[in-house]
Specification:
The protein is mostly beta strands and 170 residues long. The protein has one helix and nine strands, in the order H-E-E-E-E-E-E-E-E-E. An eight-stranded antiparallel β-barrel has the order 1-2-3-4-5-6-7-9.
Length: 170
């Protein structure tokens, strides 16, 4: 356990050093799904639930997690969350953020959110959260799961949290 704690503290030190760098940005190109009727274009309501389980010293927010809100996707690979409320083990936050997405012909998709506002990382620490999902219900519903996290440009092999959700076309 001591070795894991030391490795974690080294990673935190690296993250602190990287905070002075410009944010990590990822640009994804979307399949232009216009006319298909089953893409992510338009307005969507979303809800995510799960459990956050992080090691010390960033474990203050461990426990149940919940986020709901609304986003608009532009049919060209970009989306913007216009309103969201999150709850990290009782700590409530209101947020807006943007990201990119790609949609495959089979109805699966990937979403990347650079610099997602999360309370357990110090401000300015670059991060990228990746979600994978599948469209269902004739393109009116999507099931989504957290698939990867990168902090300070370093992919995290064990996310330590389980988060899944659903989108509903508005």
């Amino acid at each position: 356990m001591k070795k894991k704690t030391q490795m974690f503290l080294r990673a935190v030190c690296l993250l602190a050093a990287l905070t002075s760098l410009e944010g990590v940005s990822s640009r994804a190109l979307a399949d232009d799904d216009s006319g298909s009727g089953s893409g992510l274009q338009g307005s969507w309501a979303f809800q995510f639930t799960g459990t956050v389980n992080l090691p010390p010293p960033i474990n203050l927010f461990n426990g149940p997690f919940y986020r709901n809100g609304r986003f608009v996707a532009d049919n060209h690979g970009a989306f913007h969350v216009t309103t969201a409320v999150s709850n990290y083990n009782g700590t409530v936050g209101h947020e807006t953020f943007s990201g990119t997405y790609t949609v495959s012909q089979d109805g699966t998709f990937t979403i990347m959110i650079p610099n997602l506002p999360i309370p357990f990382l110090p401000p300015g620490v670059p991060n990228v959260f990746t979600f994978e999902g599948v469209l269902a219900g004739g393109g009116k519903i999507a099931k989504v799961a957290l698939a990867g996290v990168s902090i300070g440009g370093v992919p995290q092999p064990n996310i330590g949290s389980v988060v899944a959700g659903e989108f509903i076309k508005q």
